[in-house]
Design a protein that fits this description.
The complex is a heterodimer of chains A (155) and B (409). Chain A contains 5 helices and no strands. By secondary structure, chain A is an all-alpha fold. Chain A starts with a helix and ends with a helix. With 409 residues, chain B is mainly α. The radius of gyration of chain B is 20 Å and the shape is globular. The mean pLDDT of chain B is 90. Classes of the chains: A mainly alpha (155), B mainly alpha (409). At the A-B interface, α2 and α3 of A face α4 and α13 of B.
C-alpha cells in the first residue's frame, strides 16, 4: 500500500506536468489554431475602424485634436496587444503558420498607419496631400486586415 | 413654490447623479457588442435601485439615523462586519475607477497622460470634501452631470433606424458573434453598474446630512422614482449610440475616448465639449459620493463622529478614512493599471457584494421598532423578495461567468 502511494504521487505529478507542458508548448491545429489569430485580427480591425472614424471626424472639423489624439493612442495600445497575441500564438499546421505571418504583417502595417495618423493629428494639418495619404493608409490597412480575416475564416 | 423648486432640484440632481464611470463604460461596451439586447437589464437594475434607495432614504428620514448605524445595532457586529468588509472594498474599487475616469476625461480635453491627472483629480476631490457644503457639492455635480443628456440628443441626431433599435431591444439573445455566457456576464455587469452599493449608503447618509424627517419621505420618493428612471434612460441612450455607430462596424469599445466619438459624429465640437464636461462632472460627483460612502460606512460601523455637517476637526477619523481611501485609489492608478479595466471589474464585484448590502436594508425597513408606521408595505416586500432572488443569482453566477468568459473577452 505504501509502495503504491510512493509511486502514485510522483506519477500523478508527472502526468500533470506533462499535460501542462503540452498545453503550453504543443501546437494547436484546425479551428483551435486559427481562433486566437482570428480574435487578434478582429481586435486590430476594430482599432483601425475606430482610427478611421476619429480621423474622419478631425478632417470634417467635428472633433478636437486632443480627443482624436487620445483615441488614436488608445488604438495603438490595442494594436500592440494584437501583435503580442499573434507573436505568442503557436499554430501547429503550416497553413496556419503562413496565416499568422500574414496577420502579423497586416497588424504591423496597421500600427504604422495609426501612428502616422497620430503624428498628422498633432501637426498643423495644412497639406491636403498628407491628409489624403493618412486616410488612404488607414483604408489600405483596413482592407488588408479584412483579407487576412477572410483567409483565417476560410481556413 | 419653494417646495416645488426643491423637488425639481432633487429630481434633476438624481438624474445627473445617476450615471458614473461604471454606467458610462459598461453601457457603451454592451451597446457595441450586443446592441440593445441587454437594455432590459438596465430597466431591471433601475427598478431595483429605486426600490432599495427609497427604502434606505425612508429608514434614514424616519429614524434620523443612517442605515449602517442601524444595521450594526439591529444585526450585531458580525453580520454588519461582513456587510462593512464587502461594501468598503467595493467602495474603494469604485472610487479608484471614478478617479481614473476623471483623469481619462481630462486626458480627452488636454492630451495629457492620465497618470499626471490622477493626483490632481484626487486632490480636487479631497478639497471639495474638506471645504464645500454637502448640498452645494451634491447639487452642482448633479446639475452639471445633467449635460450627459447630450447622449440622448446625439442619438436623435444620428438618425438611427428606430425599428431596428426596437427589434434589438426585443431580442433577448446575444448577437451572432457573441456567446450566451458572455451575454449573461455582461448582464450581471450592467446590473451591478445600476445597483452599485455605494448609492444606497450615500443616499441614506445624505438624508441625515440634510436633516430629513418623516415629512421628507415623499420628496425622497419623488427624487428616486423620477430621477433614477431618467438616469436609466440616459444609460440606454449611451448603449444605443454605441449600437448605432460601433456595432455595424464591428468596433469593440475598450476606452473612454471611443465612447465620445458618436457624440462628436452627431453634434460636432460643441457636443463633444459638452459630453466631456458631463463625464468630468459625473465621475467627479461619483468620486465624491464613493469617498463619502467609505467614510460613512466605517465611521457608522465603529461609532465614530461622522458627517459633512460637522467641521473636519469634529469628525477627524471620518475625514481621515476618506483621505486614506483616496490615497489607496491613487496608488492603484499610479501602477499604470487601465482605469477602464478597473471599472469593468468594479461593476462585477459590486454585483457579487449586492446581497450583503441589500438584505440588511430590507430587514431594517421591516422593523417597527425603528420604522413605526413607515415599515415596508406588502407590495414593497414582495418586490424586494423577487429582487433578493435576482441579486443572489447574479452574485453566485458572477465569478463562474467571469472565469468561463475570461472576464467577457
Amino acid at each position: 500500500m505504501t509502495l503504491v502511494r510512493r509511486v502514485a504521487g510522483p506519477a500523478a505529478a508527472a502526468v500533470a506536468v506533462a499535460s501542462l507542458a503540452s498545453c503550453s508548448l504543443g501546437g494547436a491545429t484546425g479551428t483551435e489554431a486559427t481562433q486566437p489569430l482570428g480574435d487578434a485580427v478582429d481586435a486590430a480591425s476594430s482599432a483601425v475602424a475606430t482610427s478611421q472614424l476619429a480621423t474622419d471626424l478631425l478632417v470634417r472639423h467635428r472633433a478636437t485634436a486632443t480627443v482624436v489624439d487620445t483615441a488614436l493612442l488608445d488604438q495603438i495600445h490595442v494594436l500592440d496587444s494584437s501583435t503580442f497575441a499573434l507573436m505568442t500564438a503557436l499554430p501547429g499546421d503550416p497553413a496556419a503558420i503562413d496565416l499568422r505571418g500574414d496577420a502579423i504583417q497586416a497588424v504591423a502595417d496597421a500600427a504604422a498607419a495609426v501612428a502616422d495618423a497620430r503624428a498628422w493629428t498633432n501637426s498643423a494639418r495644412t497639406s491636403p496631400a498628407r491628409t489624403a495619404g493618412v486616410v488612404g493608409s488607414l483604408d489600405d490597412s483596413a482592407d488588408a486586415l479584412d483579407e487576412v480575416s477572410a483567409a483565417i475564416e476560410g481556413s | 413654490m419653494k417646495r416645488l423648486l426643491g423637488v425639481a432640484l432633487g429630481v434633476l440632481t438624481a438624474i445627473g447623479g445617476f450615471l458614473d464611470i461604471g454606467d458610462l463604460v459598461t453601457n457603451a461596451v454592451v451597446g457595441s457588442r450586443f446592441g440593445l439586447s441587454l437594455a432590459w437589464v438596465v430597466v431591471v437594475g433601475v427598478v431595483g435601485i429605486c426600490l432599495f434607495a427609497q427604502m434606505s432614504g425612508r429608514v434614514a428620514a424616519v429614524s434620523g439615523r443612517a442605515t449602517f448605524e442601524i444595521i450594526r445595532e439591529r444585526l450585531g457586529p458580525r453580520a454588519a462586519g461582513a456587510n462593512l468588509a464587502a461594501s468598503f472594498l467595493i467602495n474603494v474599487l469604485t472610487l479608484t475607477a471614478e478617479v481614473g475616469g476623471i483623469a481619462l476625461a481630462l486626458q480627452l480635453a488636454s492630451s495629457v497622460e492620465p497618470r499626471l491627472w490622477v493626483p490632481v483629480a484626487a486632490l480636487a476631490v479631497w478639497f471639495v470634501l474638506w471645504r464645500v457644503k454637502f448640498s452645494i457639492m451634491e447639487n452642482v455635480t448633479g446639475l452639471v452631470g445633467l449635460t450627459l443628456v447630450v447622449f440622448a440628443v446625439a442619438l436623435f441626431k444620428l438618425g438611427p433606424d428606430w425599428g431596428d433599435l426596437a427589434q434589438q431591444a426585443m431580442t433577448l439573445a446575444p448577437t451572432s458573434t457573441e456567446t450566451w455566457p458572455t451575454y449573461w456576464y455582461y448582464a450581471i455587469a450592467l446590473f451591478g453598474a445600476a445597483m452599485t452599493p455605494y448609492e444606497v449608503f450615500f443616499f441614506s447618509s445624505g438624508a441625515v446630512e440634510e436633516k430629513w424627517t418623516a415629512k421628507d419621505v415623499g420628496q425622497s420618493r419623488l427624487n428616486v422614482l423620477i430621477g433614477f428612471p431618467f438616469g436609466g434612460v440616459l444609460s440606454i441612450a449611451i448603449a444605443a449610440c454605441a449600437a448605432v455607430v460601433f456595432l455595424p462596424q464591428a468596433i469593440e469599445v475598450d476606452s473612454l475616448s471611443q465612447i465620445v466619438l458618436p457624440v462628436a459624429l452627431a453634434g460636432g465640437k460643441l457636443a463633444l465639449a459638452v459630453v466631456i464636461v458631463g463625464i468630468v462632472a459625473a465621475t467627479f460627483g461619483a468620486a465624491l459620493e464613493t469617498s463619502l460612502s467609505s467614510g460613512y460606512t466605517l465611521a457608522q460601523f465603529l461609532g465614530w463622529s461622522w458627517g459633512k455637517f460637522r467641521r473636519p476637526t469634529q469628525a477627524a477619523r471620518f475625514h481621515l478614512t476618506m483621505i486614506v481611501a483616496l490615497l489607496i485609489g491613487v496608488a492603484i492608478l499610479m501602477t499604470s493599471v487601465d482605469p477602464v479595466k478597473v471599472t469593468e471589474f468594479s461593476v462585477v464585484f459590486s454585483a457579487i457584494a449586492l446581497p450583503l448590502t441589500y438584505l440588511p436594508i430590507l430587514v431594517v425597513a421591516n422593523d417597527p421598532e425603528y420604522m413605526g408606521k413607515h415599515v415596508n408595505g406588502r407590495a414593497t416586500n414582495a418586490l424586494a423578495m423577487v429582487y433578493l432572488v435576482i441579486i443572489l443569482v447574479a452574485s453566485l453566477a458572477a465569478i463562474p461567468l467571469m472565469i468561463a468568459t475570461g472576464a467577457g473577452s
